[in-house]
């Protein structure tokens, strides 16, 4: 049974999953990884979700304030052995519900063309592509999306 907890970026299971995510992204992004890594620090994240199956941490995600009424979804990851089991949609829905509870009206996010499964997840979850924002403007591999809550 899937169990989700709300926590912060200090949680050891969240940190362990983020290390796995960073390794995966380093392989996918190759030489571009250093550019993206600078925007993925977790030390200031106060809203994180960790997903457990049978007490094993299998997935995570987080958000941070982006604009006055928007959050940016960050650090979404599911261990490969547990993909396709509904973990990522559950984590994303939990993050959106939490942001909504805090009074935010929408979410933005950035993912990459080398993460087609992430793009499919976000599209199935109601996210729409938008022009690249902030540090991702002009970055060909970046795909930026948003969703109203």
From TrEMBL:
Keywords: Acyltransferase, Transferase. It comes from the Bacteria. Residues 1-149 form the N-acetyltransferase domain. PANTHER family: AMINOALKYLPHOSPHONATE N-ACETYLTRANSFERASE-RELATED, AMINOALKYLPHOSPHONATE N-ACETYLTRANSFERASE-RELATED-RELATED. This is GNAT family N-acetyltransferase.
